[in-house]
Design goal:
Chain lengths: 234, 462
């Protein structure tokens, strides 16, 4: 209320997606503006003074990265997040070299985008203290508002609700054994009817891959008949 | 396809580099051919002139003898040349003077002949017109006499006594005319005469034919080069068309992704707000399906590019058992109507070093095929063995199996025995992944009994 809303300018030629992103962001308390073409973006930046620019790489069948490079040179303090359905590493690299702060592959979830926006607008501000919605353990962070996982290098990974519930439980009890019952409860609440062993195994597997594949220096270990423990890698 | 030289040049520039090289090499080859042909022609012409000159000299000498014989006939003297002498000897008995040396013999006969010629010149009975006619007639057999000039010069008095000139220039269309000169010096004690014949002779039939052959080969060379040029132009155009098609195909596939991005975004937005656990789970699964489809599209796009070899550093330890379990979970979602009997014989701690996403895709494709081309109760059995050198992953099914013909083609791109459901890209892609990992996929199959796919990977744990 007293803190000003974060102003987001979204440029994407997919009108349907663009409108729903803006609608979603506005619902989440951002002040989002949508533009479907590249024309006039420079003026819009001058008028709106957005805190962040979300930019589709394939805008208007032109090389959006080139255009973004231009925008970046004119507004060096404006963070740019690229969104794209080009998943090639070269495109990503070019995007980041052109001055983008992040590159999100389409399709993405609303919360992944808002996690990125939060992170890169926060970085802009001089206060280095961690916002309350970020839980940190060792060198990983959990964004509790957007329910995403932040790696030490700044990469933000989207989490499914179940994955988030499990990860949060494990981080809250870092280096402690968490029983299966506790995890069941964290995922499905008290509603025993939904408890499903196979699904749980599946989610735990995904969480383990998340933790262990991303060089977090942590490991999820299984303790027979006791439960699971998130701890430092041995 | 008319091309002015400017347009032609533009055409050349727009071609692919190697096409231009091909064209250049061919042109050089033909130029070399034409040059060698020209040299050969030149040689032939030189040889021809030499031959002609020789025969002209010979002819001149002979004709003088003949003319002399003609003028001698008025004295009733039979004047014969060497060749005719043998005939004469048979009929009459001439007095023979024997001169030992052959060269002296010739010299003597020439001296006698010269003396007789000098005599007939003095008496004005040596018919130069006759000489001219005879020479022209003789020469016209090999070539065509364009102009002729016979002169009689009195060297001692230094004046021209006689000159007979003929000119057929009006009729001349010959391109190639050469001048031949022959002389006969007649020295007799007090006087010396010079009979000189200067003939211009047009090209012989032989040279004419040679010229035609050369022109035909030049035209043929030009035609061949032009045909090749247009052929390359057509291939080039076709190449451009194909690459355009590929690009638009890529574009079209890419466009499939944008509605999916929208659906994914909306589904997850709904899912986040949904409080009903069952609905939430459904929305989550739906979003997963959309993501799966997007990844499948990416795979289709990527498969068009060839994989480079995967770097060792990119590989990770992948627990195979869990990976396969995950694949089967996906399969159960993909084929809800099939009761999949999945036998996972892989040891729980069995790991392979691979790129997790790609290796999972590779194995998923094989398992998907095992289930897809099967009845409603498919059995898929998976096992893995590690040996000294390699890792063998066996995936066998009780499906429809494949014929020998199908087996030959399954790893080729865009080949599919199933014209309805198959994209023909799956196994090709799987094989590319295996090869990028330094391994390969082989298959054995029996129609009606099922197929077994064997994925062999190098044992990189060493």
């Amino acid at each position: 209320m007293n803190t000003p809303k974060i102003k987001v300018l979204l440029v994407d030629d997919d009108v349907l997606l663009g409108n729903s992103i803006v609608e979603e962001l506005n619902k989440r308390g951002y002040e989002a503006t949508y533009m479907s073409t590249i024309y006039g973006v420079s003026d819009a930046i001058k008028q709106l003074l957005p805190d962040i620019l979300v930019f589709d790489v394939e805008i208007g069948r032109e090389n959006g990265i080139k255009i973004a490079e231009d925008l970046f040179k004119r507004n060096p303090s404006l963070p740019i997040i690229f969104i794209s359905s080009h998943h090639e590493d070269e495109t990503k690299e070019a995007g980041l070299l052109a001055g983008g702060v992040a590159y999100i592959d389409k399709p993405f979830s609303p919360k992944l985008l808002s996690a990125h926006i939060d992170r890169f607008t926060r970085m802009k501000k001089p206060t280095s203290e961690r916002p309350e919605h970020i839980i940190a353990t060792e060198n990983i962070q959990l964004d509790t508002r957007n329910r995403t996982f932040i790696l030490s290098d700044g990469t933000i990974i989207d989490l499914r609700p179940m994955e988030y519930a499990i990860l949060k439980k494990l981080i809250d009890h870092f280096d402690e054994i968490v029983t299966r019952e506790e995890i069941y409860r964290a995922v499905w609440g008290k509603d025993v009817a939904y408890y499903n062993e196979q699904s749980l195994n599946n989610y735990i597997r995904r969480v383990r891959l998340l933790v262990e594949d991303n060089d977090t220096g942590m490991a999820l270990s299984m303790h027979r008949n006791l439960g699971y423990k998130l701890g430092r890698k041995q | 396809m008319r091309c002015t030289s400017g347009v032609l040049w533009d055409c050349v520039i727009s071609m692919k580099k190697n096409f231009v090289y091909i064209l250049l090499v061919v042109i050089i080859a033909f130029a070399a051919l034409l040059i060698s042909q020209g040299l050969w022609m030149r040689y032939a012409v030189d040889k021809n002139i030499k031959d002609m000159n020789e025969s002209f000299q010979e002819c001149f000498k002979k004709t003088i003898s003949e003319t002399l014989a003609y003028s001698m006939s008025k004295y009733n003297i039979e004047y014969v040349t060497d060749e005719e002498y043998d005939e004469v000897k048979k009929k009459e008995n001439p007095v023979e003077v024997n001169i030992k040396k052959d060269s002296e013999k010739t010299l003597a006969s020439i001296k006698i002949e010269n003396a007789l010629i000098a005599l007939s010149i003095r008496e004005d009975s040596f018919k130069f017109s006759k000489l001219d006619t005879l020479l022209t007639n003789q020469l016209n057999r090999d070539g065509r006499v364009v102009s002729s000039c016979i002169t009689l010069e009195d060297i001692s008095a230094n004046k021209i006594l006689k000159e007979i000139r003929h000119d057929n220039n009006a009729k001349s269309t010959s391109l190639y005319v050469n001048t031949y000169i022959a002389e006969r010096k007649i020295d007799v004690s007090s006087q010396s005469y010079l009979i000189k014949a200067e003939y211009k002779i047009g090209q012989s039939g032989y040279l004419q034919k040679l010229g035609i052959v050369a022109i035909v080969s030049i035209i043929a060379s030009i035609v061949i080069v032009l045909v090749l040029f247009f052929l390359l132009l057509m291939i080039n155009r076709r190449c451009d068309e194909i690459s355009n098609m590929e690009r638009s195909f890529h574009g079209a596939i890419h466009d499939l992704k944008s509605p999916l991005a929208y659906a994914y975004f909306q589904l997850l937005s709904l899912e986040e707000r949904e409080t009903d656990m069952a609905k939430k789970a459904s929305l989550s699964i739906a979003a997963d399906r959309v993501l799966f489809l997007t990844n499948k599209i990416m795979r289709l796009l990527k498969s068009a590019h060839n994989f480079r070899k995967i770097e060792k550093t990119d590989k990770k330890e992948v627990p195979l058992y869990e990976m396969m379990e995950q694949v089967v979970v996906e399969m159960r979602i993909m084929f809800p109507n099939k009761e999949i009997n999945f036998i996972n014989n892989i040891a729980a701690d069995f790991t392979i070093r691979a790129l997790p996403d790609l290796m999972e895709a590779c194995l998923r494709i094989i398992v998907e095929n095992a289930i897809k081309y099967n009845n409603d109760n498919p059995t898929v059995e998976i096992s893995a063995i590690r040996s000294q050198d390699d890792i063998k992953i066996t995936i066998s099914d009780n499906g429809t199996g494949m014929t020998g013909q199908q087996m030959k083609n399954i790893f080729k791109p865009y080949y599919s025995s199933d014209k309805v459901n198959g994209s023909g890209i799956g196994l090709y892609y799987a094989q590319s992944i295996a090869k990028a990992h330094g391994g390969r996929i082989t298959a054995t199959s029996a129609v009606g009994k099922g197929s077994t796919f064997l994925v062999t990977l190098p044992n990189s744990s060493i």
